[in-house]
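Input/output pair, single chain:
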Amino acid sequence: MDKKIRNVVFDLGGVLINLDFENCLNAFRKAGFQDIEKQVCQYEREGVFGQFERGEITPEEFRAAIREKAGETLSDRKIDDMWNLMLLGIPREKLDLLLELRERYMVYLLSNTNQLHWDYACEQMFSYRGFRVNDFFEDTFLSFKMHLAKPDTEIYKQMMKDANILPEETLFIDDSEENCRAASALGIQTHQYHIGENLRELFE
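Output:
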């Protein structure tokens, strides 16, 4: 770990939260959503999922779009439950690590996420040992609130401006090579996370 590092920025899904895309996609398929892979594919920036991630549509509009595409009268609860099947949970050792890192660094979250996933994560995954989400991070930077998404460089610039941090003093941890490359181009130090890796070793 570079001695200059004062800020650590984590991605959420795939780094902190374990994901199961297939579980979620299967539920949507069963509900009659035909081209779910094409829609959810991260390159489908203009589809309903991309719009939801950038906060361009509300949860109500998102659910309405799902109903229209699925051709079913799905309840709000059913849609939310299917959508949240993607999120498996955060291992305890990662939550413990975040709390420890806060004693030595400014810890932030920068995530491409949406209102429903974020609400679910706050309620189900960051309720730990009496802590809440605000105990784990100095601040959270979320695509749906910022109306920006990684790997667009604007989201990194906005985060650094709002947090008042310098790129050379910042380590960004993400599971996407593309997102890491975009951050690197701005002078931010990066680490691409791979499933199963022990994050603690980065800070020893």
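The chain has eleven helices and seven strands. Residues 59-70 form the longest helix (12 residues).
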